[in-house]
Known about the structure:
Shape of chain A: elongated
Number of strands of chain B: 25
CATH architecture of the largest domain in chain A: Up-down Bundle
CATH topology of the largest domain in chain A: Butyryl-CoA Dehydrogenase, subunit A, domain 3
Number of helices of chain B: 11
Distance between the termini of chain B: 179 Å
Helix content of chain A: 40-55%
Radius of gyration of chain B: 58 Å
Number of helices of chain A: 7
Strand order of the largest sheet of chain B: 5-8-2-3-4-1-9
Structural class of chain A: mainly alpha
Largest sheet of chain B: 7 strands, mixed
Strand content of chain B: 25-35%
Helix content of chain B: 25-40%
Number of domains of chain A: 2
Distance between the termini of chain A: 27 Å
Strand content of chain A: 5-15%
Largest interface: A-B, 31 and 28 residues
Oligomer: heterodimer
Amino acid sequence: xxLVSSTxxxxxxxxxxxLGCECxxxxxxxxxxxxxxxxxxxxxxxxxxxxxxxxxxxxxxAVVLYVPANTLPxxxxxxxxxxxxxxTILGGILELWHTGSWDLALIVFIAxxxxxxxxxxxxxxxxxxxxxxxxxxxxxxxxxxRLIETVGHWSMLDVFVVVLLVGMVxxxxxxxxxxxxxxxxxxxxxxxxxxASASFDPRLIWPxxxxxx
Amino acid sequence: xxxxxxxxxxxxxxxxxxxxxxxxxxxxxxxQAGPDxxxxxxxxxxxxxxxxxxxxxxxxxxxxxxxxxxxDRERVLVSVKLDKSVENLAVxxxxxxxxxxxxxxxxxxxxxxxxxxxxxxxxxxxxxxxRLHFTGLETPPFVLRxxxxxxxxxxxxxxxxxxxxxxxYYRRTRVGRVVGxxxxxxxxxxxxQVLIEPPxxxxxxxxxxxxxxxxxxxxxxxxxxxxxxxxxxxxxxxGVAFASPADAASAPVAAAGQRFELFxxxxxxxxxxxxxxxxxRMVFEQxxxxxxxxAPVDMLGVEIGNVRxxxxxxxxxxxxxxxxxxxxxxxxxxxxxxxxxxxxxxxxEKTDAxxxxxxxxxxxxxxxxxxxxxxxxxxxxxDFIPKAAKATLDMHTDPPTVPTVRGTLSDLQPQLAEIVARxxxxxxxxxGSGLQDTLRSAGAAGNSLQETLASANAAIRQLTPDAQRALxxxxxxxxxxxxxxAALDRNVVGGDALxxxxxxxxxxxxxxxxxALRVLAxxxxxxxxxxxxxxPADADPAKPAEGAR
Lengths: 213, 549
């Protein structure tokens, strides 16, 4: 652990001219630019190329799509009893809350609202700090990144629920569920945040004077 | 290396694409959202924010977004978001109403809403003027705009059993329906709106007559009992029927919104038109029990009108209570008589009154007569009374007063009184004395009868000696006849008469002979052998024979 606090003192792979394969973990000699792992053929690079740019781009796309994802309905239901209804995520949460299922409302809120926002905010923080080559709380930022990676998939909960409903609720004239435009946007947000976190190279948390990309 | 570092990542295309997609999504949604309108209703039964739909021709064109009370809490404000596609619904003459399940005689409507909940129905307006605040109808409109057909207005005296949805019949075929009725309290008139559905609208001409075909008519005529009804359904739910009079075949097709009178029955409907009534007033001195509003007014047997009201008056000068009868007469029913008069006089507003006045000058009087002896119903007859006292039509009163004469029934009473009075004048004492004279002369006649009898007596007395002699002869003859009969009696009939005794003896002998014969027969039956062997010796009584046991 004390290795982290004094980065300059620690010998890195880069300083030794070595490259680690991100796929199979093989450490090999750094050869040319377009080097490939001699064992598995995975592309090798010291840092993910244009990591910050790509992360920022995906993040911005996610932010843009987050607006329609929450304002447009994600699901349209039609039933004999209730007629045609369309539901937004927030509306669904409110409905759950009002009907007394506050626990369910909480789960949906965390999975569909809190986690994407948290993810976008955390990644934005990571990108900004990495861009500034900040040395501020590097260990916490690293654990934040790991948290994002772990929790990010759960945002797809909504998408799964809707897709399940669409597949299952097919009672002809009595009831049917159709996905709506918001679901597309929401799914895109989740995918984009996952792409963003995948594009982010956590090694950039510890800035290297040799690394000015 | 430097140039490579400066190169922008292709990943930047992603946010641009996202921006485009997101913008498109949002813009499309915003574009889809039509105008927000507010509709006020009396109550919000069945309306739910976010759930209740707005449907035009059963197509969902919007949704209720908010249900709230108006500031004065009198009404309900329903906010509706219309779809973009029906933006033009938010115009001045669009109508909104709540579709709820309704059960009526003519059918059940809105049954689907039992399950789906109420929704707001729309009838699209055609005005150009935009409008965002509407007042909702409490009941569905009778006719939707643009619904094909000919809508007409029938002016009715009463609704009968008509209701919205009641059928309209032509030749007992359903060709339309009643789409509504409005009672105008200001004018005290009832207007029934009907819609003739295509392609039957050409059947309605300007001369068509409409009547209320609700229920059924019993008509008892000389030819028997007639039950008249349009259909079984019309008995239950009422209906309107129409027909064109035979002489109006070439009348033009009626225009939309034309007003017709709704008659009470086909008979009145198809009768020649009455035209405007002429109201008249009649004052009768006698009681008019049995004269009711609606009683016919006839002229020489032709029904020309009806009694409108019967009321009591008080004449202060004489302190009497005459009966005032107001009646409507329809001069058109007089036909050619009136036309001739019109031709001679020229038509003015007062023509009919003048016509009546001339009639009165010629002895036309109103008289109450008995129409039905059983029920005591009366009618008013306008008739030319030959010896009526001179009178004129009083044009100063409103309506003009027709002079009256006593009714036939009330005429009878004074006649009876007259008879009684005449009876009173009869000199019954004179009649009595005359009778006495008669009786006296009858007594004289009795005396002469006595004399006649006496002379008859004398005549008889003269006859007597001869008769006595004749009688004595007769007596003698009778005596000899008596002797003969007595001798006969002695010889034949008497107890000891010879003939009788001999006959008695002969009979006794025959009796004995018969007895003996019977004994013999019995014996022979028991002992047939005795015919051959002869009679055996008598058995010893002490030793009974075997056969005797």
